[in-house]
Amino acid sequence: MSESTTDVNDAVMDRHHDILRVRSFLPSLRLNLADAHRRAGDATEARRHLAVTDLAALPEDGYGTMIRSGVERARQALDAGSTAPLAP
């Protein structure tokens, strides 16, 4: 394998890694958007954001657990009709 092929592969892998890293933050963005809409009284838009939240993109660590828990609490608050801030 030539050095230029290795360089291309490394560049592709670096870009792929960055995409995966960004992808893992999208559920947090969706959760925050859903919660903002919920607190503003727009349950339809809040549910839309939660529906497209890709929980599979989250890592299996403390961060992933925190976001999954937040999504579940946001869903429960929506089901209860609450616009109060989510409890930690």
Write a concise keyword list for the protein shown above:
72% helix, disordered N terminus, mainly alpha, 88 residues, single chain, 0% strand
Topology:
Layout: H1 3-23, H2 26-39, H3 43-51, H4 62-80
Helix pairs in contact: 2-3, 2-4, 3-4
Oligomer category: single chain
Determine Rg (CA atoms, Å).
Answer: 18 Å
Q: Could you give a short account of the major beta sheet?
A: none
The 3D shape can be described as: elongated
Give the helices and strands as they follow along the chain: HHHH
Helix percent band:
over 70%
The number of strands is 0
| Fraction in beta strands | under 5%
Low-confidence parts lasting 5 or more residues at pLDDT below 50?
Answer: 1-6
Q: Note the total helix count.
A: 4
- In whole angstroms, how far apart are the ends? 53 Å
Structural class: mainly alpha
- Mean pLDDT, nearest integer? 85
Structural description of this entry:
With 88 residues, this protein is mainly alpha-helical. The chain is built from four helices and no strands. The chain has helices spanning 3-23, 26-39, 43-51, 62-80. The radius of gyration is 18 Å and the shape is elongated.
Briefly characterize the structure.
With 88 residues, the chain is mainly alpha-helical. The chain contains 4 helices and no strands.
